[in-house]
DNA sequence: TCCATTTTTGAATTCACCTTCAAAATGACG
DNA sequence: CGTCATTTTGAAGGTGAATTCAAAAATGGA
């Protein structure tokens, strides 16, 4: 029998297992048995903790999103220079490669968000928070006179997050030319035009 | 019995039915019976024409993509002024609303493209062709002295398509603030900065 | 150590979908 | 109008996954 664990530990395990299963089989293709296999348990054990698979999937998506966002915030908190903040934040929004699990998980939501309200709300809320994050960086830089914004900070922030999202899709779809470095440079090109700063540091 | 049709007519029907079924149930959630229902046939009849459902799904995605792209090209062909071309093309890349079937279909590919090579190739080729489309507009405008590009036309074109993609996701996910008009304005903001033209016509 | 409780298993059942196929319906063509 | 090839149906069979549940195993506490 699989090692027994406390209720909360097991739920965390299952959320992780569900995350991997979603990446492997797609949000509409995951099966109870996939999650069980990833967790090293039987289907019955999964069902004992989550009688409804769809609830587990939502929790897994939610946890993945929060982790992604928190990671970016933590990275950001170590910096003070607005230029450096902007450069580092752009990079941290891109997948490390075509297999990056965090971005692959988020990408699974793209289509489902149009069909499923819960996923739509989750994805929208992540987008808005990332926009706020960029907006704070832009406003700070503008206040310090480092940035001369070509448009409102909200507009620029929305576009920056949008570009990250889109290149995340391109990279996980294995575009033969656009990888993490190329995407980074493309977004920086916009960021330079929008901030009037050459963003070298 | 459902009206009998010629082989090629029926295949076109089935591709349309599959398109609707994908939008309704997701690319990984579609079932033979969903397609049959959309087509007004039984599962057996669908199988008679497409013994392998996944082939039909690929054809449906392919057809949807081609239609989307051809539509944009046709719209573009009616214009000569680079400014107008750019403005109209940006608009034609956005969904008309959160239910826009063409964009919802494309969005279904986002996640699957990371798992399925065929879908990855399809999506990548659409992206590249749209980039070329924009690049031609930008190069023409620059040659005529109407645009003063802030970066290489390839860079700007890639970013424009990326922005369209991303806002397509936001809109179909029913972002409470970002609708077609707002997204259009956001992309125009970038296009103005990138072309040095206020894009009023 | 033993007991009570919680967790997990594994087998049985049910359900839903895919697949196959014989028979029926349809339409083209002589 | 009759024949024939094509298309469609509908039922039967097979497969695999979800669900249920009694029994077994693991754990913590007395």
TrEMBL record, chains A, B:
Domain HTH tetR-type: start-end pairs: 8-68
Residues forming coiled coils: none
Protein known as: TetR family transcriptional regulator
A Pfam family matched in the record: TetR_N
Species annotation: Nonomuraea fuscirosea
DNA-binding region listed in the record: 31-50
Source superkingdom: Bacteria
GO MF: DNA-binding transcription factor activity; transcription cis-regulatory region binding
Key words of the record: DNA-binding, Transcription, Transcription regulation
InterPro entries: Homeodomain-like_sf (IPR009057), HTH-type_TetR-like_transc_reg (IPR050109), HTH_TetR (IPR001647)
């Amino acid at each position: 029998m699989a090692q027994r664990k406390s209720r909360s530990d097991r739920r965390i395990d299952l959320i992780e297992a569900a995350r991997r299963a979603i990446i492997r089989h797609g949000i509409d293709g995951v099966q109870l048995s996939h999650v069980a296999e990833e967790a090293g348990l039987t289907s019955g054990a999964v069902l004992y903790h989550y009688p409804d698979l769809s609830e587990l999937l939502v929790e897994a998506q939610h946890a993945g999103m929060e982790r992604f966002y928190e990671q970016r915030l933590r990275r950001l908190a170590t910096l003070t220079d607005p230029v450096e903040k902007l450069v580092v934040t752009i990079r941290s929004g891109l997948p490390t490669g075509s297999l990056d699990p965090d971005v692959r998980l988020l990408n699974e939501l793209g289509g489902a968000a149009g069909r499923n309200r819960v996923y739509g709300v989750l994805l929208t809320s992540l987008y808005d928070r990332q926009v706020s994050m960029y907006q704070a960086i832009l406003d700070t830089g503008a206040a310090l006179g480092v940035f001369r914004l070509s448009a409102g900070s909200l507009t620029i922030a929305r576009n920056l997050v949008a570009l990250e999202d889109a290149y995340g899709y391109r990279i996980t779809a294995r575009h033969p030319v656009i990888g993490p470095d190329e995407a980074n440079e493309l977004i920086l090109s916009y960021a330079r035009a929008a901030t009037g700063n050459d963003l070298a540091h």
